[in-house]
């Protein structure tokens, strides 16, 4: 294993270009999807309201991304424990604020932008695992030293996120944990057992919460309750279907006119399908495939175990969220609140994702040829 040095090469230009394209498309589509509802909202009355907030978050995120591109990713190690503690404090702080739509996921102070700590929790688990596993060696193959400690830490963060009524992000945390453990060299038999446990935990989370059970039932047959539990999925499918091959045109969506609730959030992909058609959806999917491919290449060529696991975890977070979001919007899995990375509205999510991309790009600058 080569010893980390401060010497850096050029960034992965394909990865960088893909990230910037996704951010640009996201800002444009947030404006297109939200302009109608923002203009006719009596509390806003400004069609560019969400555009301004998303564009501002994008600029801040890009600024920090360039900073992390220049910062040697090995220096993050000594700050990992501090960030873990800060994340726990932030995850606890959300319960001091009023619920929004029955969930307590945001920290909102005055007129400042809201913060969603669960977005940070996804990545802090990756930072912790990469740092800890690097020093484990062959112990990663054991259940006592290689599996259980990471299940406890990841489970703790996932549990706090679950407590916020956010099963989807809690599931992302646990899935990413399994991916990182597998790449690190955990035994296949252990991984199969863990996969079963995570699946059972997810099933229990659905079964013991009435609204989640209703969502699952509506996924099986959304037309059984078209005005309630099946409404959102039906409107999403109508948007995708009406877009056809070429779409109805940018800004011309009908479903965003109060048919799909908050179309600029989790169901923005259906608005893309309606306005830009199958062609637009295909381009988005291809961009995510390219991002995942370059993330995998970065992980394989990383100069050390820490870099490999860090790149694997960061890429997995984006990949899992993109897959789940597109599957939900197309009716391939039950409705759940996972945003589409870089595309869905959400300032803290966009900024944190861009910081993570900066770390990934920095790893790409320090390759082992």
TrEMBL record:
InterPro entries (UniProt xref): FtsW, FtsW/RodA, SpoVE
E.C. number(s) listed in UniProt: 2.4.99.28
Domain of life, source organism: Bacteria
A single MF term (Gene Ontology): lipid-linked peptidoglycan transporter activity
Keyword Transferase appears in the UniProt entry: yes
GO biological process: cell division; cell wall organization; peptidoglycan biosynthetic process; regulation of cell shape
GO cellular component: cell division site; plasma membrane
Catalytic activity: [GlcNAc-(1->4)-Mur2Ac(oyl-L-Ala-gamma-D-Glu-L-Lys-D-Ala-D-Ala)](n)-di-trans,octa-cis-undecaprenyl diphosphate + beta-D-GlcNAc-(1->4)-Mur2Ac(oyl-L-Ala-gamma-D-Glu-L-Lys-D-Ala-D-Ala)-di-trans,octa-cis-undecaprenyl diphosphate = [GlcNAc-(1->4)-Mur2Ac(oyl-L-Ala-gamma-D-Glu-L-Lys-D-Ala-D-Ala)](n+1)-di-trans,octa-cis-undecaprenyl diphosphate + di-trans,octa-cis-undecaprenyl diphosphate + H(+)
Primary location class: membrane
Transmembrane stretches, start-end: 12-34, 54-73, 82-100, 142-161, 167-184, 191-208, 276-297, 309-330, 342-363
Pathway annotation: Cell wall biogenesis; peptidoglycan biosynthesis
Family named by the database record: Belongs to the SEDS family. FtsW subfamily.
Function text: Peptidoglycan polymerase that is essential for cell division.
Record's protein name: Probable peptidoglycan glycosyltransferase FtsW
Organism this protein belongs to: Clostridium carboxidivorans P7
